[in-house]
Amino acid sequence: MNARLRWRKFVSNFMLTMTGVCAFVSVAVLFLILGYLLFNGGTSINWAFLTQLPKPVGEEGGGMANAIVGSAKLLLGASLLGVPIGFLGGIYLAEFSGAKVASVVRYAADLLNGVPSIVIGIFAFSMVVRPFKGFSALAGAFALGLMMIPITLRSTEEFLNGVPRMLREGAMALGASKWKTIATVIVPAAYRGILTAILLALARVAGEAAPLLFTSFGNRFWSQGWTQPTAALPEMIFRYAGSAYEDWHRQAWAAGLVLLGLILIINILARTILSRGIAVPRS
Amino acid sequence: MQSSPNQGLSVNVAATAGAAATKENIAALSLRMKISKVNFYYGSKQILFDISMGVADKRVTALIGPSGCGKSTLLRTLNRMHETVATSRLEGEILLDQQNILVQDVTSLRRRVGMVFQRPNPFPKSIFDNVAYGPRINGMKGPIGETVEKSLRHAALWEEVKDQLHKSAYDLSGGQQQRLCIARALAVEPEVLLLDEPCSALDPISTAKIEELLVELKNLTTIVIVTHNMQQAARVSDFTAFLLTGQMIEFNPTPHLFTTPGDPRTEAYITGRFG
After folding, report:
1. DSSP category for residue B64
2. Would you kindly state where each structural domain of chain B is located, as residue ranges?
3. Fewer Cβ within 10 Å of end Cβ, chain B: N or C?
């Protein structure tokens, strides 16, 4: 009896320690990456990096101003494609489609979400780059936008389904049509969750280099418009980190830091907007 | 006038079958709604059996009965909220001002027949915007601020919230939230107000407030209330319908039903022998 009790206590303590250690390890990895990025990026970043174009190979200095603008442009374009399609599709799934259609679309979205980003890049290459005969910012935005669709769609559906039924009934009992109920009560009740998910989607595609390699391709100068190739931060990191030059490695770290900052700014902006509304309390 | 609402509403007290009593009512009363031979199904399961009754204008009609007797279902047919369940099916006729509601545009019907639910369900909006919601989506003309104030006064909530109209509705207590929902329903000036066990999630003091309110409100509108609380039905209603397993057992003026029930099953229920 006593031995049994001791054994139980040992197992309990052992498991407690294990879970604690694992929790610590996962957090530690995160902070290690962040710290490393902050240190290397922070010591490499300077004003020139943010404002100047890349210098020709072999010259020191210069920056990635074109890639910062390019990344912002690509994310904007991707959002314009991915968010409306995913959002409206999610509304259809949650509010209008039958269970069968919903499960098929949901499955397809999950599959699309699992498609390697390089494959999305090939797809965008053959759908946009080849017909228009050239790499372009548009093609890059198309590839990233495609990747945003499934995340936006699934999260929109989930958050809409999470809106309490009694809120729907409350609106309908006041004479609101289905569309009005959705637009004035259900979406406002769910938009915090949806917006957060869209931000996660944005953050995810912001760091993608693979789908950009043969779509927006890269550009050592300012992009001349949506139909021309453009630089982007992850794509620059990919090229610079793999180069032989110490100065380029330094710039790759700085680019990583800027990318992180970009995502952070989007996050803070969104949270400021979010904090203004009224949330449905969890019951 | 409120103290003796039943005067002149002579009901056939001898009739024990609800349908027969209702027919007598129809002759004697000004009816706002009339339910005739309603059968209701969820899929193949029949929930309501041949229900007929009238809803007297500017009176409170209570639907009582044990859990699962179909009283909430009956209430939800009156503004066609039952249609939110795809498998539901309704036979029979429900008239509002002599017009069959089952063939009308459902959104305009629900504007005329408002509803308050079991649990307070304010929208995630400010107090003001909650009350203004109905008038706004229905495109009602007139100064919205006045409508909101009037509705909150009718719901006996104005004094408590007039300085915090732009705060979240969720900052209110449960009882206040339910009165807010009543104000929200009143803002579109419904001809009939349906209440589905409006006090079941509230404490006794909040419940008392709402009951007081209902007695006031019948000057303004016609009320149908579902309650599992027999004392509540006795306190607030002018007419009571007793339902059992989807059938109307008795429909009579409230004092009559509670003092001299016309059916042994009613008597058994109100004396607490079951349910």
Report:
1. E
2. 18-122+188-270
3. N
Tell the burial category of A62 from Cβ atoms under 10 Å away from its Cβ (0-12, 13-18, 19+).
middle
**Residue A117 · residue A147 · CB < 8 Å:** yes
Complex ipTM over 0.85: no
Let me know: does B240 contact B233? Beta carbons within 8 Å.
yes
Tell me if B51 sits within 8 A of B36, measured CB to CB.
no
Closest-CA residue of B relative to A185 is: B123
Q: Which residues contact A107 (CB under 8 A, 6 or more apart)?
A: none
Residue pLDDT, tens place only, A49-76? 899 999 888 788 888 999 999 999 999 9
Domain A51-274: top CATH class: mainly alpha
Where residue A1 falls among pLDDT bands split at 50, 70, 90?
A: low
* Mean pLDDT (whole number) for A72-84: 96
| Interface contact B168-A278, CB threshold 8 A | yes
pLDDT tens-place string over residues B38-62 = 999 999 999 999 999 999 999 999 9
Q: Does B133 touch chain A (CB under 8 A)?
A: yes
B30 in contact with A, Cβ within 8 Å: no
In this structure, are residues A136 and A144 in contact, taking their beta carbons and an 8 Å threshold? no
Average pLDDT for runs of 10 along chain B of length 275: 40 40 53 94 94 93 93 95 91 93 93 94 95 92 92 93 94 94 95 94 90 91 93 93 94 91 92 77
Q: Tell me whether residue A269 is exposed, middle or buried, using C-beta atoms within 10 angstroms of its C-beta: 0 to 12, 13 to 18, 19 or more.
A: exposed
The answer for residues whose C-beta is within 8 angstroms of residue A172's C-beta and 6 or more apart is: A178, A181, B81, B84, B110
Is domain B18-122+188-270 annotated with CATH 3.40.50.300? Answer: yes
Identity of the residue in A168, A170, A175 whose CB atom sits nearest the CB atom of B138: A175
